[in-house]
Specification:
Layout lengths: L1 E5 L2 E6 L11 E5 L11 E7 L2 E7 L1 H17 L19 H10 L12 H10 L1
């Protein structure tokens, strides 16, 4: 019997070489609760501070996690999609503003994409 722990999940099964004709491989995947070590019922995914997490939990611990987060989730905004727009810092010019200034001052800038570092530096020096 083969037992290996990979990324907080236990894989338990019988290992039979795939090279032997007519033989097969049987693998059982058993989730183990990451909090108390009991059998897990599900993998719960969540994100906090821009980092995504997944944890294997039994029904009781999964409910405890959901109950603990419920007051915060009730007041939170839901973000759609995986990609997030980059936020500009206060006082930092947008690419559109820099492009407009650059065109007015004789720079050749593309409609889309990254603004060249020398153009950005010239804009910042002028402002």
């Amino acid at each position: 019997m083969l037992i290996a722990r990979m990324r907080r999940r236990y894989f338990v099964g019988e290992w039979i070489s795939a090279n032997l004709p007519g033989m097969a491989q049987k693998v059982n995947i058993v989730l183990v609760d990451d909090v108390d070590g009991s059998d897990a019922a599900e993998t719960v995914s969540f994100a906090l501070d821009g980092k995504e997490y997944a944890i294997d939990l039994n029904e009781k611990n999964a409910q405890k996690l959901r109950d603990a987060m419920a007051p915060y989730v009730a007041h939170a905004r839901r973000e759609s999609g995986r990609g997030r727009r980059a936020r500009t810092s206060a006082g930092k010019a947008s690419a559109a503003d820099i492009r407009a200034w650059a065109r007015e001052n004789g720079y050749d800038v593309p409609e889309r994409g990254r603004v060249a570092a020398d153009v950005r530096a010239a804009y910042e020096a002028a402002h």
